[in-house]
Input
Amino acid sequence: MDTKLMQLKILLPSGVFADIKNVKRIVVETTDGSYGILPRRLDCTAALVTGILTYETEGEDEKYIAVNDGILIKAGPKVSISVRHAIGNAPLGKLRAMVEKEMVELDELEMTARNVMAKLETGFLRNFQNLRK
Output
């Protein structure tokens, strides 16, 4: 691989979402703001937030992938991104709408699941205390 280009791999819990070669630049949303990554940037890691990942490959226009919270690791020319959910192959405007709909719904489901678990734990502790009396 040309040292002036990168390989971008996007990983989901279920497998590889994308393996893109000849990437000239990547822009991601992190907990500290938006960051651009070029091939000669120093190796790094970053915590990603839900947003739009932008990348450009040699000879092609910018492409966009919506990603959920995750982590990015750059090691040499390889950039690995591990996220819970990703959506691609859509124009930017449509992708933003998809992010708002699907990823916000996922976050709401996750919050509902956490609330249910908290109620179960509280009920369990209350019943346990009643048994001790």
Notes: The first helix runs from residue 92 to 132. Helices lie at 92-132. The chain is about 30% helix and 45% strand.
